[in-house]
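pasting input
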Amino acid sequence: MTIGELAPPQRLMMTPGPSSVDPRVYRALAAPIVGHLDPWFKTCMNETQELMRQVFQTTNRITMPMSASGSGGIETAIVNVLEPGDEAIICVNGYFSDRMFEVASRTQAKITKVEAPLGRPVHPDDVRRAAAGKKIKLVGVAHGETSTGVVTDLDNFRKVADELGALLIVDAVASLAAVPLNVDKQRLDIVFSGSQKALSAPPGISPITVGPRAEEVMTSRKTKVQSWYFDITTAMAYWGQGRLYHHTPPISLIYALREAMRIAIEDGLEARWDRHRACQQALVAGIEAMGLKMFVENPADRLVTVTPVMIPAGVNDAKFRGQLLDEFNIEIAGGIGPLGGKIWRLGLMGYCAQKANVLLLLGAMEKVLLDQGARVPAGAGVAAAARSFSHAEAALTAK
Ligand SMILES: Cc1ncc(COP(=O)(O)O)c(C=O)c1O
């Protein structure tokens, strides 16, 4: 059997990740490999870390690309802080914040789970109540919960963590470079993300930043970090001044992430946040004009990068997504866990968060819904989205 040359289809990734990749990033990915200790690469490392500080908006010394997907970011943040006997609170309002709880509960620390109903953020008062009488070392929260499309207001959680004298650990996998986030101004102790979401680089890197209070906690540990690979202080032997071998990093992915971050900075973070918001408002206007229902009821709780939509009665989930893929080369995601078969998750991340893609997706959804026997008012989705974009553009010009 002869295996042919690799030829993946060109999909439009309107998913909660990975998102489609800018051609500039593909070009970076194809650049020649150098050694991880090559003097040229050391400069490339400095530049990558500098760009990462700009994207996170921080001056944190420990700011580096972990050689891992977003889940590795969760693991790194949790296992470097918690020691046996510590107590921590993890806020859980979906599949990925529950993963943070799962990672934390594999340490020998005592973990309290504080939950919210799916489609809502955790209430800070529930954290206060759960913490009563405990010495909480860290509070963990997902800025954007990708499984439900919910955003959490981090300032409320900073306040609670301050009251408890705890570190605040933030999963920004689905929000970095799309949702306002300023690590230093908001005094977030550890924040990690994923390369494949709103940064629109290939999957495989988890950018992470660690503030001075968290660094102090890490350097004054009494026990060794349970993971060798994700031990931040030893990984900093390579990503800090020494540039000493720790493990061989994914050179090509670092090139790609560097270029993706250059694009984010060229766009301007605020312009990028505005663009994501305008795209989501138009998408929501279009979805509602087609007669479909949003899963997250409160507009203030909606995460701009992931829009969950209730699957209308009588429409087959798998057939709908299959036809979008086969006929339009558009991938969207279904629900996970208890939301499987109940919602579609429409992604607007980085390179995909563009006006043309929103209009194309709505037009394609109308065609597929009609083919599946649903009743959809002709052209209503695209028309409502177009109006929404025009309003957003007029508001921006008036600024
Ligand atoms: C909020 C959030 N956290 C963590 C992860 C895990 O990231 P990965 O799949 O890259 O390991 C994801 C992935 O979708 C996510 O959306």
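fyi The pocket of pyridoxal-5'-phosphate is lined by residues 16-17, 69-71, 74, 96, 142, 144, 146, 171, 173-174, 194, 203 (CB under 6 Å).
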